[in-house]
Amino acid sequence: MEFVQQLINGVSLGCIYALIALGYTMVYGIVRLINFAHGDIYMIGAYIGYKVANWMGPHFVPALILAMAGSALAGVTIEKIAYKPLRNAPRIALLTTAIGVSIFLENAVRKFVSPNFLPFPDLITRVPYEIGGVTFSNVQVFVPLVAAALVVILQYVVLKTKPGKAMRAVSFDKDCARLMGIDVDRIITITFAIGSSLAAAAGVLVGVAYPRIDPYMGVMAGLKAFVSAVLGGIGIIPGAALGGLFMGLAEVMAIHFINSAFKDAVAFVILIIVLLVKPSGLLGKYASEKV
Amino acid sequence: MLTGFLRTFVAPAVALAVMYKVVVALFGRNDYYMYVLTLACMNVILATSLNLINGFTGQFSLGHAGFMAVGAYVAGSLTKFAQISFIPALLVGAVAAAMAGVLVGLPTLRLKGDYLAIATLGFGEIIRMLIIASDQIGMKFLEGPRGVMGITKFTSFAWAYLLAAISVWVIANFIWSTHGRACISVREDEVAAEAMGVDTTRYKVMAFSIGAGFAGLAGGLHGHFLQMLHPSSYDFLKSVDYIVMVVVGGMGSLTGSVVAAVFLTVFNEVLRRVMELRMLVYASCLVAIMLTRPQGLLGGKEFSLGIFRFLVPPSKRPSVRSDERGVT
């Protein structure tokens, strides 16, 4: 029973990691950038959700939609200002810029909103259930459902729509896609918008599930989501979702069955094992180096 | 070698002494300035050692603070619990960090680029988390998340400066040695270097562990400077600080690392006047520097008296050594 209980807790956390990991994996797939600011976009999403809920009352849908829209705008702006001019620069310069943006966002929220933990309003009234000794709340059902719906929508956009097709073409071969008449810059913008809005959705869901937000919440969550993306095979969308779920489960299991001190270490142990055993990730294929 | 020693130690020491006298004459003696300068010296060690790994060997490491933590904890525990004197403790700390570097490097250096970056990030965090969990895995005296208090303050500006100068000198000599050139060849093209008979794994691990060892040395200084050991002093953001110094200074430029380490340390202190806005300004400047000069302020260049070569008539210039001919 204890195990089933933790399974439910783990899935709920894993869905949040999965949503952030999707943004990581999409951006990496297209511009080959570890977007360190992505975790902070997730934080921004949570803060927009918080503000909206304080203005309009505790309704889930407007908070979610406005947070997603606001973060998409933020993500696109960051891409235009900070990443686009560096498209042909060394990768490490791009990475450093991403780190700079991350520090900027954390401290902007710290300065202009609040440096303290904020209690997230109850967007959904908690109703506890108990079935056969396992207790869970409606929130723990709701979070995975919303996440799953978003992943399905994303899969539809990527596989069935024209921008999705262009996105896949750009991630396969950027130069070739340009030759075929695809506006690569526009596709990169769309990718950032979609990835950022998914991170914002994760931010609102984390506010619903664990009602406490702070300006630095994105750092560890971002790192873990990134590990999830690597675990699933970076650049592969179902891989990121799977990796996120696995990460959430592993973390919850480690806390309850080993020791809570290993809460964050578990992510990195998984990362090292994956990188050493199968660097291309669970769903990745082996690519040999071209000389 | 002696002239090299004179150039790297004595000349800057004299220059610094003169500058110090001028500053004291202008502003009076100030403990706060000494504090900032000591901090700058430690950052010089960390930035140059990281540049050896990132800039010269081309292996992107994001876990430098982890090795710093190893050095700090080993050296700090030795002086506090074993009453060993300062310098031997520092050296043992540095050796321990270098050994940790070999342990981390051997498996991870098979990875490339971004994958290596995140693997080293992971190892850096694992080292920190082992320290946090230390009181639960039978190392009670390390106090886990509470940190060890009451480390004697052995680090003075003189020690920090001397060790920084020695570190830069050793790293510079390593880079311009046969081994250093092998490291640079690994950076330029690993496959080609391998084909030319360079044992790439050996050189990558060598550079990685030397870099880690110097990080451990700086960590030991840092622990005896703050007079405490705390796992939060060695987190991911700390590693980021040194990456920033290396990148802003210029990958593959020791001069750049030294200048950037001193500049960013002082800049950070100057920004304390605007308190709340400090990190915002810092981050904006970082992004601005990257946007305008993605190769860093001194990308790949070294400052040396050689730039005054044009003053010497061509006939009196020392002849170019054969192994340097044609090298750009």
How would you explain this protein's 3D organization?
The complex is a heterodimer of chains A (291) and B (328). Chain A has helices at residues 2-31, 38-56, 60-83, 91-112, 138-160, 162-172, 174-179, 184-209, 217-232, 237-257, 265-277, and strands spanning 118-119, 128-131, 134-137, 212-213. With 291 residues, chain A is mainly α. In chain A, the strands form 2 sheets. Chain A has a two-stranded antiparallel ribbon. In chain A, strands 2-3 form a two-stranded antiparallel ribbon. Chain A is globular, with a radius of gyration of 19 Å. Helix content of chain B is 68%, strand content 1%. In chain B, strands 1-2 form a two-stranded antiparallel sheet. In chain B, helix 2 packs antiparallel against helix 9 (200-226), helix 3 (64-81) packs antiparallel against helix 4 (86-108) and helix 10 crosses helix 11. Mean pLDDT of chain B is 84; it is low at 319-328. At the A-B interface, helix 4, helix 9 and helix 11 of A face helix 5, helix 10 and helix 12 of B.
